[in-house]
# Entry
Amino acid sequence: MLRSVLQLVRRPLYWIAMLGLPLFLILMLTSLMSEGLPAKAPAAIVDKDGTSLSRNVTQNLSGMQMVDIKYSADSYTQARHMMQEGKVYGYFLIPENFEADLLSGRQPVITFYTNMAFYVPASLLFKTFKTTAVYTKAGVASTVLEAVGQTEDEIAPLLMPVNITTRGLNNPELNYAIYLCNSFVPCMLQLMIMLVTCFSLGQEIKYGTSIQLLNMADGSIIRAVFAKLLPQTLFWFVMAIFMEAWLFRYQGYPMNGSWFWITLSELMFVLACQGFALFVFCVIPNLRMSLSICSLLGILSFSIAAFSFPVESMYGAIGIFNYIVPTRYNFLIYIDQALNGIDIYYSRWWFVAYIVFMLLPLTYMWNLKRAMRRPVYAP
Amino acid sequence: MNIWNKIKLHIRELFLVYCREFKLSIHDGGIMLFFIFIPFLYPVIYSLIYNPELVRDVRLVVVDHDRTSESRSLVRELDACQEARVIGYAADLDEGRRAMDEHECYGILEIPEGFARKIGRGETAEAVMYCEMSLLLRYRGLLVAATNVTQGMGAELQQRKIDEIAPLASTVMEGDLLPIHNISMGNITGGFDSFILPAVIVLILHQCLILVSGMAGGAKVENRLLIGYDSFNSAPSVAMTMLGQTLCFMTMILLPMIFLIHYVPLIFRFPMESDIFHEFVFLTPMVIACLGLGFVVQGFVWERESIFVLWVVTSVVFLFLSGITWPRYAMAWPWNWLSDIIPATWGVEGFVRMNTNGASLSQVRQPYINLWILAGAYMLVGFFVQKYIVRPRIMASRHGVDLARVAESGE
# Structure
C-alpha cells in the first residue's frame, strides 16, 4: 500500500492526471458557461423598405436582450456573405414596400434566417426574431381592429385566443450550465478515473513489477489490487466531494434533494468507475489495449450516456449501450435527486447498477492474476 | 557547389527519416491502431448515436380539468405534432407528477376548468405545460409543439371571431395579415447530428494526429528491448527529422482524412456544401499545426502510453473551446485567448462554415490565416522542444538507462 502511494506521489504524470486535469476541467466548464445563456448574438438586418414602420421593427429588434444587431446589410446576398464569413449568426429581412403592402392588406412576408450550423446562438436568434415578428404582426392587427371599432379589451384576447405557458421545472431560466456541467463534469471524472486505473495497473505489467506486487500481497490478487487502488480511491473520493461541493454549493446549481444521497452517489460512482476500468483490464491485461478501450468508452460516454440527445430518440441498437457506462447512472441520480428532488425510491435501480459495476471485476480477476504472474508487455 | 552538396545531403537525410518513420509506424501496433481506430471507427459510432437527428414524440401526460370538446381538441392537436406524444390522461397533478417521477413522461399539460368557456367568451384561454428539464432537447420539443398548437388553434379561432364581431375587419385581415417565414441556413433540418458531427470530424483529425505524434515520441524514449526496434541508429539533424516525420504522418493521414471529410458526411447525409479539394487546402495548415503541437507534446510524454492519460480528455476541452456549442463571443477572455491558440478552434470554425454554410476559401480566410500562423508557431516551438528536451533524452536512453528505474523514481 505504501508502495502504491509512493508510486502515485513520485510520478508527475499522476499529479497532472489526478489533480491538474480534473481541476482544470471542473473550473473551465463551470466558468465558461457562468453566464447561463450567451446573450448578444451578432446579427444583421436587411431593411429594404426604409420607412418609419420598418425602422421601428429594427429598433425593437435592437432592444432585445439576446441579439446584437451589428450590421445593416443592403441586400440578402450581402447578409448571407456575412453569415458565411462568420460575422453574424442570422439576419432579419424586411421586404420592399413593407409598410405600404401591410397597410393595404397585400400580405408582405417577413423572413428571418438563422445559421443552424451553430445551434445555441441560432436558437436564441430564432426566438428573438420570432418574438419581434409576432409583436409587429400583433401591433398591426390591433391598429386595424381599432380602426373598425373594437376596444382594447376585446382586441387583446383576439390576438391570442389560446395560450399554453411552458414552465421549465427547476431550471426556469433555461440555464445551459446547469444542464451541461452536471453531466459533463462527472463524465470527465469517469474518463480520468478509468484511464488512471488502467494505466497504474498496466505499469506493473509493463515493467514486470507485478510479480513483486503479488508477492507482497502473499499471492492474493484481491489484496494486491486492493492495495494498489485504495490510495487512488481515497484521492478520487476527495475529488468527487470537491466536484459535488463546487457544482451544487459554490455554483449554486439546483439541489432539491438530500445531500446524503448525492454524496453517496458520488462516492459509489468513483468505485463504479474503478470497478469498470478494473474489469476492462482484467479481461484485456494489456496496457495499450485497455487504455484504448477506456479512452474510447470514456469519450463516447459523453454522447452515449445521452446528456443532450435522449436515449428514446436514438436507434434502439445504439441506445441500449447507455447502460454500460457508470456515468449514465450518475446522471440519472443527479436528475432524480438533485434537480428534481424526488423520492429515493425512484432511483433505487441506479444505485444497484453502481454495485454491479463494483462487483463486475471479481468475475474475471483470475485472468489478471495470470497476467500478473507472467507479465508480458506488448507495445 | 558546397551549398549544392549540403542540400543534397539534407534531402538524402530527409528521405532516410521519411522511410524509417514509415517503417516504424507501420510496424507499431499502437500507432496503427490510432490511424485506423480513431478516424475510421470513431466517427461512424459517433454519427450513429446522433443519426436520428431530431427529438420526436416527447412523452406527455394530460391533466384535463375541463373535459370539453375544445380541451380535447387541444390535446389532439398536441398529439399530432411530431415533437410530442400524449401517452395518457392523469386524474390530477399528483398522478401526473408520479408518472413523471417514474420517468414515464417528461411533461404534464394541465388544462384548467373553464378553458372552453373562455374561448366562447372571447377571452384568452390559458393552459400550463410543466416540463422536466434534465435534457434541453426534450424541453425544446415540448416548447415547439406548444407554440405550434397555440398558433394554429389561435389563428383559426381568431378568424372565426373576427368574422363574427367585426365583419369590416375581415376585408383587411383576410388570411394571414403578415406571414412570417423562418429559414434555417446550413443545417436545414436543424438536426443534432448534422450540427455536431462536422465539428467532431475536425476534432477527431486533430486528436488523432497529436495522439499518434505523442505515442511515436514516447516510443523513441522507451527501452529498445521493450519495443523491439532501434529508432535512432543514425542521428540526422533535428529539423530534418521533424520534416521527415511531418511528411510521413501527412502521407499516412491522407486516406483517413479523405474518409473523414468526404465519406462520413456522405454516408450519414450531413450537409456537404463544399468540395473536398478546398477542404483539403483549408485543413492542411491545421494538420501541420497539429503535428507541430505534437512535437511540443513529445517533450512531456516520456512513455508511449502516457499520451492516453494526458491527452484524451483534452478532446472535451477543445470541443467546448472551439465555440461550436458555446459561442466564442460569449466566452470570458482567458478562454477566448486559450481557444485562439488551439488549431482545432480555427479548423472547426472554418470547416463548419465551408461544409455546412458553403463558404468559399476566401470567406474563411481569417481562420485559414490563423491556422498558418499556428502551424508556423508550433513548428518553431516544437523545434526547440525537440532540440533541447527530446533529443538529449533520446540520446540518454540510447546509452542504456534502465527505464523501469527511471519510471519508478519519477523520471
User: Anything to note?
Assistant: Chain B touches chain A through 128 residues (CB under 8 Å). Confidence is low (pLDDT under 50) at residues 225-231, 401-411 of chain B. The beta strands of chain B are 58-64, 84-89, 107-111, 125-131, 180-185. The CA atoms of residues 159 and 174 of chain B lie 8 Å apart.
